[in-house]
Amino acid sequence: MLDVPTATVARGSIAQRISAPGSLDALRESHIGAEVPLFQIDPDPYVLAFRQAKAGRDLARAERRQMQSDSARAQALLRKDVISRQEVDRIRTRVEVAKAHERQAEEAVDLAKLNLRRTLSQAPFSGTVSKRLADEGTTALAQPQTVVVVLQETEELEGRATIPEAHLQAVHMGDRAIIHVQGLADPIETRITSVGDAVDAATRTYLVKMRVPNPDHRLKAGVFAQVEILARPRENVLLVPREAIRSEDGETRVLTLEAGRAVAVPVRLGVQSPDAAEVNSGLEAGQIVIVGDEAQIIAPGMRVRAREDGEGAS
User: Fold this and answer.
1) Domains present along the chain, CATH in parentheses
2) In this predicted model, which residue has the larger pLDDT, 212 or 36?
3) What is the 8-class DSSP label of residue 145?
C-alpha cells in the first residue's frame, strides 16, 4: 500500500489573477485639417475678403440711409401734392430693397470673418502631434478635407486588454489592474473603467479599458503591455489545491481517497489561482483528495493510505 499526501476539500475564498495582452493607447486622437482651402499660415486672401465684405456692408448701409431720407422727403411732397402716391410707393419699395441689401452685406461680413478665423486650425485638446501628414507649402483642401496633423492626448493614456470569453463573469468595473510595460522598472497600478458589452466572434475575447496617468509623458501611445487583473474574491466556495487536479483524455479529474483506494472523480472547475481551484461540481466539503506528484502518477483503483505525518494535508 502506497502512502500519499492528501488534502481536505473545504470552503473558502479565492481571488483570481487574469493575465492578458494589451496596449497603452492615446485617450483621444484627433485628425486635424483645415475648414477652408488654406490650413494656415497665409490668411491674406481671407483678410482681403473680410475687408471687402465690410466695405460692401458700409455701402449698403449708406444706400439704405439715403433711400430712407428720400422716402421722408417724398412723404412731405405728397402732403403738398407735389408728387403722386405711386411715386411715393416706388420709393418705399426701394427702401425695402436697400434694407435687404444691407442684411445680405451683414451676412457676407459674418461669413468672411468666419473663414478668416478658420485659417487657424486649433487643437480641440492639449496633446502631442503624433503624425504630420502635410509639409509646408502643401495646399490643404476643405472638401474633401486634407488631414494635416494627427493629435493625441497623452497626459493620460488608456490601457486596453482583450480578455478570453471564459472570464466573462470574472471582470467588473473597479477591479484592480496591474500593467507591465517592457523597460519600465515598476508596474503601473490602476483600475478597470470599462468592460466591453460584446464578445468578438473571431477571437472569442472582450475588451476592457483602464486609465493610465502619464503626466511626465514617459509612456508612449501604442506600446505593448501585459495586463494582470485582480478580480474580486469569490467567497464561501468549494476549494481544492491546484496540485490535486489532473487532466487526461479531455477530462479534468481529482483522485479521492475512499476505503483505502484512489478513486478518479470528474470535476468541473471555476475560478483558479496559483494555489487553489474552485470546484463547481463533482466534490463535497470534507472529502479527502490526493495531492503532490502522486496525484498525477497514481492509477485509479490503487490501494493507498494517507501519510500519517500529515505531509501535504490541509
Assistant:
1) 2-14+235-306 (2.40.420.20), 17-27+154-230 (2.40.30.170), 33-37+123-152 (no CATH), 44-117 (1.10.287.470)
2) 212
3) T
34-55 as b/e, with b when 16 or more CB fall inside 10 Å? Answer: bebbbbeeebeebeebbeebbe
Mean pLDDT over 96-100 rounds to 91
Assign residue 191 a region (left: φ > 0; alpha: ψ between -120 and 50; beta: otherwise): beta
Question: What average pLDDT does the structure give for the chain?
Answer: 84
Q: Which residue from 228, 243, 252, 230 is spatially nearest to 289, judged by alpha carbons?
A: 243
- pTM for this predicted structure: 0.50
pLDDT over 80 at 192, yes or no:
yes
Secondary structure E strands in the chain:
2-4, 6-8, 10-14, 17-26, 29-33, 128-132, 147-152, 156-164, 176-180, 188-195, 205-213, 224-230, 234-241, 246-248, 251-258, 261-266, 268-272, 276-281, 288-290, 304-306
Contacts (Cβ under 8 Å, ≥6 apart) of 3: 304, 305, 306, 307, 308
Asked if 106 and 26 count as a contact pair (C-beta separation under 8 A), the reply is no
Distant-in-sequence, close-in-space partners of 250: CB < 8 Å, separation ≥ 6: none
